Amino acid sequence: MTALPASCSLVDLTVHGDTRGSLIALEQGTGLPFAIQRVYYIYGTARNTARGFHAHHQLQQLAICVAGSCTMIVDDGVQRVEVPLDRPDRGLHIGSPIWREMTDFSDDCVLLVLASAPYEDADYIRDYDEFRRVAAERNGDLS
Ligand code: T46
After folding, report:
1. Measured between alpha carbons, how far is 132 from 78 in angstroms, rounded to an integer?
2. Where are the alpha helices (DSSP H) in 19-140?
3. Model's pTM, two decimal places?
4. Helices (H), strands (E): how many in the chain?
């Protein structure tokens, strides 16, 4: 996989496993990259459907595929990287501003997302050209 954008990273989660199976606890102060204010999950995605197609001004998120698989495309305005999500013990930390698209959902995919803020429509950037402008400004490139 190509290197991730600077504001994205893969986070390995601690697995408490024994002969009964596995358990992962997501708790404040135990290595998560931000304070969690919201949790949502995406499931039952129709075949050949893509989601996302937006960026956020400020939001940080950790996306964990707790069942099945999907692909998260992350784009910082310069490079675009496809990240396969298929492990319940690994999350993708997505900073801002990062354009994201989600594809290749398996029928059984459950994508759990932890977010750093409550839902706020004004934080979304849904136009790709606007996203490129915001990303360039944030990176100090005002051209
Ligand atoms: C993201 C990717 C990974 C709410 O009411 N509350 C919420 O917390 C969320 C996330 C969504 N909604 C409503 C807004 C829409 O009417 O649920 C509907 C579907 O949301 P959306 O079209 O934004 O879903 P995705 O899958 O395109 O994007 C979501 C998140 O919105 C987004 O922040 O990064 O998942």
Report:
1. 8
2. 128-138
3. 0.96
4. 1, 12
DSSP annotation of 33 reads: S
Ligand 1 close to Cβ of residue 68 (< 6 A): no
Write out the DSSP string of 103-129. E---TT-EEEEEESS---GGGEE--HH
Is 56 annotated as catalytic? no
How much distance in Å is there from the Cα of 82 to the middle of ligand 1?
20
Q: Is any ligand 1 atom within 6 A of the Cβ of residue 51?
A: yes
Kindly give the distance from the C-alpha atom of residue 40 to the centroid of ligand 1, in angstroms, as a whole number. Answer: 8
The 10s digit of each residue's pLDDT in 104-128 is: 999 999 999 999 999 999 999 999 9
**84: enclosing H helix or E strand:** strand 80-85
> Who has greater pLDDT, 1 or 98?
98
